[in-house]
UniProtKB/TrEMBL annotation:
SUPFAM superfamilies: Ribulose-phoshate binding barrel. Pathway: Amino-acid biosynthesis; L-tryptophan biosynthesis; L-tryptophan from chorismate: step 3/5. Belongs to the TrpF family. It catalyses: N-(5-phospho-beta-D-ribosyl)anthranilate = 1-(2-carboxyphenylamino)-1-deoxy-D-ribulose 5-phosphate. The gene is trpF. Pfam families: PRAI (PF00697). The keyword Amino-acid biosynthesis applies. This is N-(5'-phosphoribosyl)anthranilate isomerase. Residues 6-209 form the N-(5'phosphoribosyl) anthranilate isomerase (PRAI) domain.
Amino acid sequence: MAEIRVKVCGIRTDADLAAVVAAKAAYIGLNFFPKSPRFVTLEEARLLTHAAPEGLCKIGLVVDADDATLDAIVEAMPLDMLQLHGKESPDRVAEVKARYGLPVMKAVGVADEGDLAAVFDYSLVADQILVDAKAPKDAVLPGGNGLAFDWRLVAQRRWLKPWMLAGGLTPANVAEAIRLTNARQIDVASGVESAPGQKDAAKIAAFTKAAHMEKGGVPILR
Ligand SMILES: O=C(O)c1ccccc1NCC(=O)[C@H](O)[C@H](O)COP(=O)(O)O
């Protein structure tokens, strides 16, 4: 069975990049949401994308960004994917895909069963879905809050497109999350930090080790 693919979101420094490369993560997320403690400027992100090794998927994360903002990001650096983490509609997802010719991952916040219909709707237009915990109503950030949702809601789900499990994952709980949900892709931001926006190389190594060791998931009986 294929190895679990890990995305580490909110990479800001050369040391962060070295840690994810050493840990054999598959994706990095570069956060362009100005209110985030993980925010990177265009120049910081540009340097990171050029330093990233071949094969590491570089994702640009935006929240309800307009075309001018996205134009500036995409023109400044070589990205492999865009992550839309706001209230972008399915039409907007399709528009962004067409405009930039890049794969798009749409984040969908999940708190209860009723939120799962949106995962299906977005899977009709996006290339990947990030199934994340729904942010609290008063939260400043729509993601990266270190909150988990009830993984049983997505246990053994199959959607039209590849999906990634996110929300409150840590080195201590990621193996259980994989076993329960059978997710093949895993995303983390605050669970591998020592303080908001400060990545911790030891936690990144522990997280990816725990995820990569967990190949099985619960078998689907047919
Ligand atoms: O991480 C942020 O600061 C952030 C800000 C605004 C929108 C999205 C953000 N993060 C998106 C991610 O992909 C996170 O990795 C995901 O939400 C999980 O975060 P965490 O629960 O902290 O592991």
